[in-house]
Design a protein that fits this description.
Helix content: under 10%
CATH architecture of the largest domain: Sandwich
Number of strands: 16
Radius of gyration: 27 Å
CATH superfamily of the largest domain: Galactose-binding domain-like
Order of helices and strands: EEHEEEEEEEEEEEEEE
Strand content: 35-45%
Length: 239
């Protein structure tokens, strides 16, 4: 009788993938960075494991002694970030950070009282940004950074959730005689040309963008007037 033995290198960890489904509004990052990898083991603890849609893998982040450790998401464009969510390997949600227009430090979960978390959402770009319409339940940025007051953190899955877009279906009731091109309804992010109805002249405001259900003008509300028509009439009274 013969016996065969297979030697598996100690750094090779065999696991069965446990897929995590995308959640509504999830924004997938272009790349991720962190302050350092636990044991310099990029096979087991790479930062990419934090957002690979697999609950069976996990990232491990460390940093210099006495400093907050961190990891950071980079996106290809600016989003209005609503939440940051973290899951355990069981698939249960472990933490949730909810944003306002000012910050994203409203933490929910059992570890919120045990550790210091700082979530920063910023626009990191040298390019000029279009005017961004303010919302109370999200913060604009193309990067999301989490800092943690601990020596290390292990993350099975974490995701950035954006404010969900809604169709723009109506115009402000004060915008008299205004039409849009393309015609409403349109989806979030659509650029619109504002035009006046026949016989009216547009004095200001000729472009707008659909932002999460609101038509937001780029240079002030449009104003249509019938300036081209005569406003005076000659009254002839017979003598």
């Amino acid at each position: 009788m013969f016996f065969f033995f297979i030697l598996i290198p100690h750094q090779l960890h065999l696991s069965i993938s446990v897929p995590r489904e995308l959640v509504a509004g999830e924004i997938r990052p272009e790349r991720l960075e962190h302050s350092g990898t636990v044991n310099n083991d990029e096979f087991q603890y790479a930062i990419s494991h934090a957002a690979d849609l697999d609950l069976a893998t996990r990232s491990g982040t460390i940093g210099p002694a006495g400093e907050m450790i961190w990891f950071k998401f980079y996106f290809g464009s600016v989003h209005c970030v609503h939440q940051l969510r973290r899951w355990a390997d069981s698939g249960s949600e472990r933490n949730r950070w909810t944003c306002t227009y000012a910050n994203c430090n409203n933490c929910w979960g059992s570890s919120c009282s045990s550790y210091t978390y700082i979530v920063t959402v910023e626009i990191e770009s040298t390019e000029p940004q279009a005017k961004l319409y303010p919302y109370s339940d999200c913060k604009y940025g193309n990067t999301v950074k989490m800092e943690v007051g601990d020596n290390s953190i292990f993350v099975n899955e974490i995701a950035v959730i954006g404010k969900q877009g809604a169709e723009c279906t109506t115009l402000d009731s004060t915008w008299k005689f205004v039409k849009t091109e393309p015609a409403l309804p349109v989806v979030h992010g659509t650029t619109l040309t504002l035009e006046c109805g026949e016989g009216y002249t547009n004095l200001r405001g000729n472009t707008a963008t659909c932002w999460y259900g609101d038509v937001v003008p780029s240079n002030g509300p449009p104003h249509c007037t019938n300036i081209g028509r005569s406003s005076f009439y000659l009254l002839i009274v017979p003598i």
